[in-house]
Amino acid sequence: MTSIQEHHREVTAAGSSIAAFSRDLYARGWMPGTSGNLSVRLPADDGYAAVITASGMDKGSLTADDMVAVHATTGEVLTPGRLKASAETSIHTAVYGATDARAVIHVHAPYATVMACRIGERDGTVTLPLERFELLKGLGLDDPARTELPVFRNWPDVRMIADEVADHLAARGDAPPALLIDHHGITTWGKDLAQARNRLECLEAICQLLTLGARDHRTDTKET
Ligand SMILES: CSCCC(=O)C(=O)COP(=O)(O)O
Ligand SMILES: [Zn+2]
């Protein structure tokens, strides 16, 4: 078990790292307003803690002081204080509860959000199929040729989104390390913030290509 001082150092280091990644993602226009949230899971001997961005902050000017320590799988606040943990903490904890992720990033990146809009959908599971893009290799999938990104409903009660995410990840051992939320944004995860950010970059780039009209010309040829 780490000492209180060591735990405090871990939390501060994680907070500094989160703040730096957040400023970068904000500068790309992926966290407009106060949108988006990031977290890092500390080693288990740190009491199953995760450090997450505080709710409602300007994500372009965060510092290590703008973080809240929570239990990585229950979301219970470990350091009660003036700041509130992200309103979307339960989605992060659903990912930590079901995967070996050590970092989670949620942003409102424009192209991913366009692709997340479930226009015309009524019931059932919605997925965004992705095939053939070389950038899929950046996701670390068993089969990098194709995957399906789940698109979750944007329930007003975030807990309901988190429950659906937890169910999906429990049922799909081969699920990609990413998800979309309808008319809302994208969440990715990985072994650290850099890997989660790289996966996010790959998916935002693929969504941009799709939005710009990328299509399979061989399929087009066969059909005409
Ligand atoms: C204006 S953003 C609305 C909430 C949201 O979607 C988001 O990503 C930020 O929520 P947080 O509580 O983490 O600031
Ligand atoms: Zn959001």
From TrEMBL:
Pfam families: Aldolase_II. SUPFAM superfamilies: AraD/HMP-PK domain-like (SSF53639). Zn(2+) binds at residues 106, 108. It is an enzyme of class 4 (lyase). InterPro entries: Aldolase_class_II_sugar_metab, Aldolase_II/adducin_N, Aldolase_II/adducin_N_sf, MethylthioRu-1-P_deHdtase_MtnB. Residues 16-211 form the Class II aldolase/adducin N-terminal domain. Its EC number is 4.2.1.109. SMART domains: Aldolase_II. It comes from the Bacteria. Pathway: Amino-acid biosynthesis; L-methionine biosynthesis via salvage pathway; L-methionine from S-methyl-5-thio-alpha-D-ribose 1-phosphate: step 2/6. Binds 1 zinc ion per subunit. The keyword Magnesium does not apply. GO terms for molecular function: methylthioribulose 1-phosphate dehydratase activity. It catalyses: 5-(methylsulfanyl)-D-ribulose 1-phosphate = 5-methylsulfanyl-2,3-dioxopentyl phosphate + H2O. Coiled coil: none annotated. Keywords: Amino-acid biosynthesis, Lyase, Metal-binding, Methionine biosynthesis, Zinc. Its cofactor is Zn(2+). Belongs to the aldolase class II family. MtnB subfamily. Catalyzes the dehydration of methylthioribulose-1-phosphate (MTRu-1-P) into 2,3-diketo-5-methylthiopentyl-1-phosphate (DK-MTP-1-P). This is Methylthioribulose-1-phosphate dehydratase. It comes from Streptomyces coffeae. The lineage of its organism: Bacteria, Bacillati, Actinomycetota, Actinomycetes, Kitasatosporales. The gene is mtnB.
